[in-house]
């Protein structure tokens, strides 16, 4: 194959519309007892919400595989007062 033909083929392939790159983030945590403390939970909750909002705004799927300690804390600490302060629970 002539070099000109190869260059033309590469150029024409690059000129075509490229498919989007899709991202899927998978995270996993084990037992995390520090989530039991209300100050730790609230400080990290804000960061977690910011991260989740970023992923959602950018079309990134997040598979957050959480352990039972974290999920138990979410169930006990996510009160209507807490969710109202961040505009959730509407």
What does this molecule look like?
The mean pLDDT is 79. The chain has a two-stranded parallel ribbon. The protein contains four helices and two strands, in the order αβαβαα. The protein is mainly alpha-helical. Helix content is 54%, strand content 11%. The protein starts with a helix and ends in a 5-residue tail after the last helix. The protein has one domain (25-90).
Kindly list the characteristics that best describe this protein:
mainly alpha, 54% helix, two-stranded parallel ribbon, single chain, 90 residues, elongated
Helix/strand layout:
Elements: H1 3-15, E1 24-28, H2 38-57, E2 61-65, H3 68-77, H4 80-85
Question: What would you say about this model in short?
Answer:
The chain is mostly helical and 90 residues long.
The total of helices stands at: 4
Shape: elongated
Total number of distinct structural domains: 1
The strand order across the widest sheet is 1-2
Structural class of the helices, strands and pairings?
mainly alpha
Proportion of residues in extended strands: 5-15%
| Straight-line N-to-C gap | 64 Å
Note the run of SSEs as H and E: HEHEHH
Major sheet description? 2 strands, parallel
The number of distinct β-strands equals 2
Low-confidence stretches: none
Q: Name the quaternary structure.
A: single chain
Helical fraction: 40-55%
Mean pLDDT: 79
Rg from Cα: 22 Å
